[in-house]
């Protein structure tokens, strides 16, 4: 092997040492991420086994659980998968699902927000008081109601991030304070009916009755998914980063198309495409983009992994933490307006009951880790779909509320156990 001489006179670099020969029978280690790229679909089985051993279960448990839940209730009563019930499930889940989206952001930090139920009640009550009692324009009352959640969340974030009060204590105090605030602004009547033809009234009652609307949305969703996936793959190939084969992208697009068009057919067999579903999907796409495609989203994940490492990397920890709680408050307010739309009123029971627990459970059941650093906004959709499906199926069977609470609690416990076991497995595999 040749050697190079340095520029200094009379100096010569030491001869390079040849690498020792590879031992007989040695196996060359291949980056697991390259399995699919190098072996095509033949590498999926090995990749799947590797993920299972490493505790990287993803959405597999919740998807399998959802399939089992739907199968059981369909066998018990075929009306469960009827167009009317499925359409009602899709609308019912939006209010809680919106709140769960905000909870996902907080859980990514490894924190919790116990105030979201009360904040949702404040938003509904504030809208009703401003628009009905004081005659303010609905669009302005609508905006102010949402901004109230933003401000409340920022206040919680300030005490947590700047003052250093634990998030549990801050938001527990918020739960009590904002519930009292809601009761105060509602006044002695306790209930304010909303205009059924107004902005909030239409959130859960408006349907796009033209059958083409559902199909157009399905086409747009499928086309957008293929375009984004294909473009991302080309970009990764250009810079030499492992990417999916085109055949996989096509297969995923086809599967999504089947699901999208089946859902469109179901909606069109009842009243049409619900406005609430369109808004919820738009929120999920937007928040997923923020978390996965922006520097802000990467900072949120970084904080969930290690606060000290994030601080040393130059991340403004206080700002990110405060903004996350502000986001949670915003989505709590939006969810509260959807919940008010469902009953077409703002009353003293808003934000109470099982709403808080269902919102947190939806995020966790959907796959967001309680330990921080792992989750997606789509987890809110999967989780709330599981919860609302259980509640709807048991309601059809005439099961009493106590049993519903017990079953929902058992599902949540099972999910948390899986999350804890997964985290231990990932630590053992050196991935957490």
Helix/strand layout:
Layout lengths: L34 H5 L4 H10 L6 H17 L6 H26 L7 H18 L4 H26 L3 H20 L4 E3 L5 H5 L3 E2 L2 H28 L7 H23 L4 E2 H19 L1 H11 L1 H6 L4 H27 L1 E3 L7 H11 L12 H19 L4 H28 L4
Helix pairs in contact: 3-16, 4-11, 4-14, 4-15, 4-16, 5-6, 5-7, 5-14, 6-7, 6-14, 9-10, 11-12, 12-14, 15-16
Verbal overview:
By secondary structure, this protein is mainly α. It has a domain at 57-186 and 295-425. The protein contains 17 helices and 4 strands. The chain has helices at 35-39, 44-53, 60-76, 83-108, 116-133, 138-163, 167-186, 199-203, 211-238, 246-268, 275-293, 295-305, 307-312, 317-343, 355-365, 378-396, 401-428; strands at residues 191-193, 207-208, 273-274, 345-347.
The topology string of helices and strands comes to HHHHHHHEHEHHEHHHHEHHH
Structural class: mainly alpha
Kindly state the percentage of residues in helix.
55-70%
Strand order of the biggest β-sheet: 1-4
Main beta-sheet annotation:
2 strands, antiparallel
Number of strands: 4
Instruction: Output the number of helix runs.
Output: 17
What does the average pLDDT come to? 85
- Distance between the amino and carboxyl termini: 42 Å
The residue ranges in which pLDDT falls below 50 over 5 or more consecutive positions are: 1-11, 26-31
Classify the beta-strand content into a percent band. under 5%
Q: Output the radius of gyration.
A: 26 Å
What characteristic shape results from the CA principal axes?
globular
Quick structural gist:
The protein is mostly helical and 432 residues long. Helix content is 69%, strand content 2%. The protein has helices spanning 35-39, 44-53, 60-76, 83-108, 116-133, 138-163, 167-186, 199-203, 211-238, 246-268, 275-293, 295-305, 307-312, 317-343, 355-365, 378-396, 401-428; strands spanning 191-193, 207-208, 273-274, 345-347.
């Amino acid at each position: 092997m040749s050697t190079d001489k340095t520029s200094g006179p009379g100096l010569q670099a030491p001869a390079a040492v040849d690498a020792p020969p590879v031992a007989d029978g040695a196996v060359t280690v291949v980056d697991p991420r390259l399995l699919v790229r190098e072996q095509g679909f033949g590498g999926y089985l090995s990749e799947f086994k590797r993920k299972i051993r490493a505790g990287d279960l993803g959405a597999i448990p919740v998807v399998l659980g959802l399939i089992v839940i739907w199968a059981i209730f369909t066998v018990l009563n075929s009306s469960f998968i009827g167009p009317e019930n499925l359409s009602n499930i899709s609308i019912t889940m939006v209010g809680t699902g919106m709140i769960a989206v905000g909870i996902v952001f907080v859980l990514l930090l490894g924190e919790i927000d116990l105030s979201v139920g009360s904040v949702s009640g404040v938003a509904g009550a504030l809208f009703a008081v401003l628009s009905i009692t004081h005659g303010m324009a609905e669009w302005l009352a609508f905006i102010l109601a949402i901004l109230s959640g933003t401000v409340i969340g920022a206040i919680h974030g300030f005490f947590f991030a700047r003052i250093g009060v634990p998030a549990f204590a801050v938001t527990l105090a918020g739960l009590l304070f904002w519930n009292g605030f809601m009761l105060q602004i509602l006044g002695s009547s306790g209930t304010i009916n909303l205009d059924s033809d107004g902005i909030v009234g239409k959130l859960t009652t408006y349907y796009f009755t033209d059958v083409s609307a559902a199909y157009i949305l399905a086409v747009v969703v499928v086309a957008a998914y293929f375009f984004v996936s294909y473009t991302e793959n080309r970009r990764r190939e250009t810079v030499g980063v492992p990417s999916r084969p085109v055949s996989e992208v096509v297969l995923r697009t086809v599967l999504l198309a089947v699901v999208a068009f089946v859902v469109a057919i179901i909606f069109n067999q009842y009243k049409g495409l619900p406005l609430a579903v369109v808004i919820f999907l738009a929120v999920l796409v937007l928040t997923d983009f923020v978390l996965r495609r922006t520097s802000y989203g990467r900072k949120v994940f970084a904080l969930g992994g290690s606060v000290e490492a994030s601080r040393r990397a130059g991340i403004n920890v206080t700002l990110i933490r405060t903004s996350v709680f502000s986001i949670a408050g915003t989505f709590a307010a939006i969810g509260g307006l959807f919940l008010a739309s469902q009953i077409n009123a703002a009353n003293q029971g808003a934000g109470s009951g099982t709403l808080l627990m269902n919102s947190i459970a939806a995020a966790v059941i959907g796959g967001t880790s309680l330990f921080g650093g792992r989750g997606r906004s789509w987890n809110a959709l999967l989780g709330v779909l599981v919860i609302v499906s259980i509640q709807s199926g048991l309601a059809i069977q005439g099961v009493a509320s106590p049993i519903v609470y017990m079953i929902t609690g058992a599902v949540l416990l099972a999910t948390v156990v899986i999350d804890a076991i997964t985290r231990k497995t990932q630590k053992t595999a050196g991935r957490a």
